[in-house]
């Protein structure tokens, strides 16, 4: 049994005792939070859940600890030998000393720390002003999703009695209380950044975000006309009285709580007015002056239009966040598409998990909302208005380029560019000559991946196209190309993941459009999301068929390809083509193939493949051969992978982890992880690529693909990594990882206590290099347009 690590005490934190026991430093992020009084009132303790009967559990972090989730029951028949592989892994782990408990940071706290890093970019005066407003909007949007999914899921598990202690050691209730306390702090900082810093700075640049009372009479008159003509007709005031029950408040909707009095009876009444979500969040009162739409609706003369003959006593804005995660029982659904459509209709009625109110709200009105919404006091967040700062996306879209990051237009990858011709390049000919490693958004998506599929659709020698779609845009040229291919008689197979979170409506729409065009549309394996990013083109070339492939780290989404940092491999390699053919056959038909030539595929081989390579680095290091582990991912929380990295660190292998979001590793703990470094980089582009590099005894091995190190990716999704074989490509990826992890690069560093520290300046106060700006400038130098 893994020994319990005692509470930190001398010897110093992070040191090894004489007996060899590893002492972990305390993590402020993991400290239980007891109910405390907040500025909105005391937190109310929920009923204590009944404790589940105790059953022996394997060590947290072992593969056996989550074996039941490794393969969904619906597909267990495809992998009958999985347990044997896991048992072999457990036996290999038994050779080492037990790893200490408390070695994992809490994932929810780590996610909040990620969003805090987003907030720090908004707070940074060196960030261009409109980009600061954009980061404020991103922070708010991120937090909305966190409450809709993570907090809602945690509350649901607590309510049903199935929640268990987290890998960090916290009880579910402790995690929930920590979230309430920490999110309250961050939301207060977020509001302060807007009111005290960003909004005044915007005003200094002629962009005034004002409230109704700050408008001139002329501006108010202009907005009254707008209200009468475009807003009033779509408003529906809903009364609350014995004849009118409290109305349903949809998730993320902005609302006004209005209190009116009947001048005849003297009775007070409550009414709710929903702010129309399809209208602009900020309305232009006059050039450069913008007012929140709820202020326009709540203007005294405007409310009198809504409640004629009544006295308007008060009004307050409020906003509800609800559980909007989906639960679809695929085994019981004859038609997954129809089942998901029904669940999307029910999504709007999920239970509330957060109530945001203006801090000036009347206590009686707040009590009514808390009572009718059946929400606890701990879930109420009083804030200075305006609420819902995701509306700042609208402000960021203003045409003020001098207040944004300098414009960057990606160019065509040099291996695909036609130097002496204005005609589009022949991508198939380029791929017959060499593999092409793409790095978006620095390399254009439209002239590479999009052009690859468009050329395939138009080429009469192309016989078939097979494609996965997880997310795509509303006016997708990728979908158009697939439809063109099908209509020209090509065989087109499209794996559409209609359960891509918050893109379900769009994906259902495109699935139906593809089906109508004659594409073969399938939804993958029951119980597993199809998250891999794959394209396969089969082309007749003389007497033979040649397969052209694309394996990427990001979605086939032309718009986000300009904002997300991603990698992709275009290749005519026969092994990759054969692997993709086998994998598509598994996804669309019946296939038991579990191993591939140049792919690692979840849920069967990906985790085990990475763990075995981590163990191999230990062997190389012990034999005196070059050994290192470098990983770049969005999230790192899988206990089995983390434990393997701890083992590598203990053996002396240097381990670098570049993570954008959540990370459960404790780096820098003596005796456990002193050889582990963790960095995070955030900036104008969203770091989204996944890279896995190993020293491999002097023959570096590098993989790229779609998988993050999370249970859902490794156990409940079809994910794919492809091995990069071109020496130049491997060297380029290792240089990228070296740059991201360098102490001379601006980044956040993770400490053993779970706290992130920003490193943006050197010892002399000068700015550290920005890896994204370096890559932009490198592309500009190739085109002769580099900044001086």
TrEMBL record:
It is an enzyme of class 2 (transferase). It comes from the Bacteria. GO terms for molecular function: polyphosphate kinase activity. Residues 1-61 are annotated as: Disordered. The keyword Nucleotide-binding applies. Its EC number is 2.7.4.1. Residues 426-592, 599-762 form the Polyphosphate kinase C-terminal domain. SUPFAM superfamilies: Phospholipase D/nuclease, PHP14-like, PPK N-terminal domain-like. The active site is at residue 531. Keywords: ATP-binding, Kinase, Magnesium, Metal-binding, Nucleotide-binding, Phosphoprotein, Transferase. CDD domains: PLDc_PaPPK1_C1_like, PLDc_PaPPK1_C2_like. ATP binds at residues 142, 564, 660, 688. Residues 104-210 form the Polyphosphate kinase N-terminal domain. Mg(2+) binds at residues 471, 501. The keyword Repressor does not apply. It catalyses: [phosphate](n) + ATP = [phosphate](n+1) + ADP. An intermediate of this reaction is the autophosphorylated ppk in which a phosphate is covalently linked to a histidine residue through a N-P bond. It holds the Pfam family PP_kinase_N. Its cofactor is Mg(2+). Residues 1-13 have a biased composition (Pro residues). Residues 219-394 form the Polyphosphate kinase middle domain. PANTHER family: POLYPHOSPHATE KINASE. Catalyzes the reversible transfer of the terminal phosphate of ATP to form a long-chain polyphosphate (polyP). Belongs to the polyphosphate kinase 1 (PPK1) family. This is Polyphosphate kinase. The gene is ppk.
